[in-house]
Amino acid sequence: MTLRGLIQPDAGWLEQPTARQVAWVGGAALAGLAMYGFTVGFWRDPLMGVFVAVKLPLLIALTLACNALLNGLLGILLGTGIGFRQSLHALLTSFAVAAVILGSLSPVTFLMACNAPPPDSPGARTAHAAYLVSHTLWIAFAGVAANLHLHRLLAGKSPNRTAATITLLAWLGGNAFLGAQFSWILRPFFGSPQLKVQFLRPEPFHGTFYEAVWRSLNMMTGGFGVVALSAVSLLILIPVLRAILPNQQPSIRP
């Protein structure tokens, strides 16, 4: 197993994933996320860097483990021909690709953290904002590249590209929904200059990510959060249902 094999897998990558192959991909994801995670928290404090190096891989592991059954069912319902073990391997491969990209950027982000104004300096608030924006862009870049890679894997296995695209969108929706809440529970990741360094907030299960989003949505729409949420839900559900229903119709043989 090599990084080249991970980034440019052969046609049978998803056919019969072995325990050794899955372990290697998981190890690559763990290493890349741990290296990058350390640089994310290092600016606030080296101890914070250690905390994030642990929490970032943990976030991905919890999301994949808790969504494994749903992702497998979606792979079957949406007509890709991908079962439970293959869906887990495909998603783990996608996260590993993102982790390798972020891990390769860790020397750059580490130097950025070393050269940024320290958290107790007058320019700490500006540095923290720039830090957040920079890391958001890098994570977004790695995520886009990883999902393009995942789509190619699905397209190679699926009977058509439409099934691959709808399956990818359904997986992204489910993983984002659960991953957002896990990220809320495991916060902080970047570490605010005005707050002390800690592994978790004093009440990690107090409130939810979605409560915070709901309050913001209601504020932005002037109290019409229900309408906005309903519109977004329909935009997501309609293409998924259109993909599921044809796959449930019995085939008619002459």
Provide the helix percentage. over 70%
Q: How much is the radius of gyration in Å? A: 20 Å
Count of individual helical segments: 8
Major sheet attributes:
none
- End-to-end Cα distance, whole Å, is 47 Å
Shape: globular
The chain-level structural class is mainly alpha
Beta percentage is under 5%
The oligomerization state is single chain
Count the beta strands.
0
Question: Which segments are poorly predicted (pLDDT under 50) over 5 or more consecutive residues?
Answer: 247-254
Tell me the count of domains.
Answer: 1
Question: What's the overall average pLDDT, rounded?
Answer: 85
String of helices and strands: HHHHHHHH
What does this structure look like?
There is one protein chain. This protein is mostly helical. The chain has one domain. Helix 2 packs parallel to helix 4 and helix 3 packs antiparallel against helix 6. The longest helix has 34 residues. The radius of gyration is 20 Å and the shape is globular. 31% of the residues are buried. The C terminus is likely disordered.
Question: What key attributes describe this structure?
Answer:
single chain; 254 residues; mainly alpha; 8 helices; globular; disordered C terminus
Can you lay out the helices and strands and say which pair or pack?
Blueprint: H1 3-7, H2 19-42, H3 46-77, H4 84-115, H5 124-157, H6 161-185, H7 209-220, H8 225-248
Helix pairs in contact: 2-3, 2-4, 3-4, 3-6, 4-5, 5-6, 7-8
